Amino acid sequence: MTAARPRPAFYALRPGGWRDYVTLLHPPYTLWHLSYVAVGAALAPRMDWTLLGWTTLAFALAMGVGAHALDELRDRPLQTRISPPILAALAAVSISAAAAIGVAVAMSRTLWLLVFVAVGAFLVVAYNLELFGGKFHGGLWFPAAWGAFPVLTAYFASAETLRAAAFAGAGYAFATSWAQRRLSTPVRLVRRRVVSVEGTMQIDDGTTQRLDADALASEPEAALKALVAATVLIAVALLLFRAG
User: Fold this and answer.
1) Count of domains forming the chain
2) What is the value of pTM for the model shown?
3) What is the sign, positive or negative, of the torsion defined by CA atoms of 97, 98, 101, 107?
4) What is the CATH number of the domain that holds 226?
5) Is 6 part of a structural domain of the chain?
6) Does 9 fall in a domain?
7) Which of 33, 64, 80, 104 could serve as 60's disulfide partner, Cβ 3.0–4.6 Å?
8) 8 A C-beta contact, residue 216 and residue 191
9) Do 95 and 37 contact (CB within 8 A), yes or no?
10) What is the pLDDT of residue 42?
11) Domain of 162?
12) Does some domain include residue 13?
């Protein structure tokens, strides 16, 4: 029996119109990685809520919009109907705006932040367009760029230095992002590349279960959803602690 082609992601909406723009944002994953910004800011010796707001906005633009627009422009993993010119414009405007925020913050605090701005802009473009033969795509680059980097950037923006707490927080973000990558890779394969799944699976209690793409993806996706919740809740807990 041939299964129907599954959605390209568990959070993907039906293609067309405004739904494509919601899907483009990868909402659970964007929220996941923005939580690392909060973690980095909360670990810093001094909590600056205004600075956290600007830093979060910059990462939301660069990662949430820019990186995902470039990814969709390159090979349509989410199968949206957004035209290439609009995707290119979204990427250019959002990444430029994020860089402008970074430069403005650097001018008001420390010019060393410009290093983070330059590295971030490079990673967004090189990773998602797989430049230089894909040398900066996949492998350890994902947890380093989308996990450790936001923590270190947010911490440095506030503390203007990096201490042990920053590197410990970056290690946490690296590890959880690595787990995300390991879980999501087989899910993406099933949802986006497998044309059909046939047959049944025999369970040791004598029952059978029909195989389809949703069944194959359900367990790792359940783990991913739990990790989204756990990562966001850690960030919320740290922010509430600093607020109190």
Assistant:
1) 1
2) 0.88
3) negative
4) 1.10.357.140
5) no
6) no
7) 64
8) no
9) no
10) 97
11) 18-187+196-243
12) no
Beta-carbon contacts of 154 under 8 Å, excluding residues fewer than 6 positions away, are 36, 37, 38, 39, 40, 41, 44, 52, 55
3-state secondary structure of 182: helix
Q: How far apart are CA 197 and CA 214, in angstroms?
A: 10
Taking CB atoms within 8 Å and a gap of at least 24, the contacts of 9-18 are 9/78, 9/188, 9/191, 10/187, 10/191, 10/217, 10/221, 10/224, 10/225, 12/78, 12/79, 15/79, 15/80, 15/81, 16/81
Is-contact 172 36, C-beta < 8 A? no
pLDDT tens, residue order, the chain (244 aa): 444 567 788 888 998 999 999 999 999 999 999 999 999 999 999 999 999 999 999 999 999 999 999 999 988 888 899 999 999 999 999 999 999 999 999 999 999 999 999 999 999 999 999 888 878 887 899 999 999 999 999 999 999 999 999 999 999 999 999 999 988 877 766 665 554 555 565 555 566 656 556 666 677 888 899 999 999 999 999 999 999 8
The single residue listed with the structure tokens 């203007």 is: 160
**CB pairs under 8 A, 24+ apart, for 166-174?**
166/40, 166/43, 166/44, 168/43, 169/39, 169/40, 169/43, 170/40, 172/39, 173/36, 173/39, 173/143, 173/147, 173/148, 174/143, 174/144, 174/147, 174/148
**Does residue 104 belong to any structural domain of this protein?**
yes
| Both tokens assigned to 198 | 């046939």
Using the structure block, give the residue that is written with the tokens 């230095």.
161
